[in-house]
Amino acid sequence: MRVPPKTNSRIPSNGFGERPFTVREPKFRGGDTSPSAMESRAFFRYLSIGLVSVSCKYPGQGPPPNASRPGDANSVSVSDTTKPETDASSGLPKACSAQGSFCALPGDFVERLCGGNFPDFAIVWFAKGTPWTRRYVKAAGVEPRNATGGPSSEGKLVKGEEVLVLRQQGGGGAQASGSVDYDVLRWDGTCASLSDSQMTGTAPGQPQNALIGWRYLDVRIQRALFKDPAVAKAQLAVTNACKGSKGGACTHAIHNLSAAIASAVRKGIELPAPARTP
Questions:
Q1: pTM to 2 decimals?
Q2: What is the per-residue DSSP string for 175-232?
Q3: Does pLDDT of 30 surpass 80?
């Protein structure tokens, strides 16, 4: 299979894009004002008018690449072996191997993951209870450099941002500067390269997250997230704030929606396996 050359491209800041997106709203009897009917109306109306016409600029990610392979990212564990286990049918890690202070993942998997943009996959992998190593950015304004050559987000890493450590670069050992560099996964589905001096294992009181582009999440994951009241409320707030507007209120609402999604995932909301995987 021909592999396209890697480019160190930046994901556009408009996380909602311009692709056509149509969802038919289900028909309800006119007098049905039950909470479930009202919630369904609101959800499908949000999906149909959604944020297709919104072009609020913010540091997020653009449309993910088309290449995909189905797999279940939820069946994971920590392995005592030196080589991480991989599922033969999906090519996805079933376990990671302890390597010093973090849980290492297979190099070929990291190359596929960091060579593209997988927002659905990232959200599922950040889910509560997964064994991957979490780290938190120490300082604000860190450039999202992707040393693998894959795309990176336009949004800089912020202080307290939660990331998943994927692997140590260079096969182990300290660099000439004395620091060790790692490839990490962000909440928006892109990768970044950070040194150990830029991260800490101590979680802040309120972990931060890279801006999540709701527009590019699979509809099944959107529906699962919509069951969280805070996410549902934040979605409707975005619809109201961004309708025909590109101002500060819209940007603020988008950030609130992203934070609500991350909070729901951290609390353990049930999510389906992502359809698009590395």
A1: 0.70
A2: -TTS--EEEEE-TTS-EEEEEGGGEESSPPSS-B-PPP-GGGS-HHHHHHHHTSHHHH
A3: no
